[in-house]
Amino acid sequence: MSESIRQIVLRNPVHILSFGFGAGLSPFAPGTFGTLIAVPIFLMMSNFSPIIYLLFVTLLFFVGCWSAGHTAKALKVHDHPGIVIDEIVGFLITMLFVPVTWYWIVLGFVLFRLFDIWKPWPISFADHHVKSGLGIMLDDLLAALYSLLSLHIVIWSVKIL
Fold first, then answer.
1. Angle between helix 85-94 and helix 30-45 axes, rounded to 10 deg
2. Are the C-beta atoms of residues 18 and 81 closer than 8 Å to each other?
3. Three-class secondary structure assignment of the chain
4. Considering just the CA atoms, what is the radius of gyration of the chain in Å?
5. What is the average pLDDT across 118-138?
6. Count of CB atoms within 10 A of residue 26's CB?
7. In the predicted model, what is the mean pLDDT of residues 55-83?
8. Residue (of 125, 99, 127, 114) closest to 35 by Cα position
9. pLDDT averaged over the chain?
10. Which of 42, 64, 97, 126 is an S-S bond match for 85, by CB 3.0 to 4.6 Å?
């Protein structure tokens, strides 16, 4: 990552948020590092009621739309790889109503990264056709919904065995 981008990001709190508090500055796999940042956030938020958790994730989604769009404009790059607020929100959505154990966290992490990278339809459509901060966030929201559904199918399947 160029030094000028690093300087732009570190000088503005909105960009720091978009870059996942610095995780997006990683020279390799910034999306994975952004998702890793979401794990302790999930652990902290899992102590709250489901309503508070949902309100937090919803608020963070809309803040993410705004901050990601703002950062993309400042960097003059739509969906810069360093913008990882979408990965943070995506992982938090993936983990909705999931038991807080290390193995479900790891599986949720793997599933979310898989769907975020693979981008099956309609994720790929949203990724290519929806612009602005909403476009940056939407493909990860859809990847999170695929991951959430897959994870709950596995959890349900394990319970009936």
1. 50
2. no
3. CCHHHHHHHHCCHHHHHHCHHHHHHCCCCHHHHHHHHHHHHHHHHCCCCHHHHHHHHHHHHHHHHHHHHHHHHHHCCCCCCCCCHHHHHHHHHHCCCCCCCHHHHHHHHHHHHHHHHHCCCCHHHHHHHCCHHHHHHHHHHHHHHHHHHHHHHHHHHHHHC
4. 15
5. 91
6. 19
7. 96
8. 114
9. 95
10. 64
CA dihedral 69, 81, 56, 120 (to 10 degrees): 100
Task: Select from 37, 35, 24 the least CA-distant residue to 115.
Answer: 35
Q: Residue with structure tokens 């769009």?
A: 69
* Domain-wise residue ranges, the chain: 3-160
pLDDT (average), residues 65-78: 95
Residue 24 near residue 91 (C-beta atoms within 8 A): no
Looking at residues 97-121, what average pLDDT do you find?
96
Spatial distance between the Cα atoms of 161 and 158, rounded to a whole number of angstroms: 5
| DSSP output for 9-22 | HHT-HHHHHHTGGG
State yes or no: pLDDT of 123 exceeds 90.
no
Q: Are 125 and 133 in contact (CB under 8 A)?
A: no
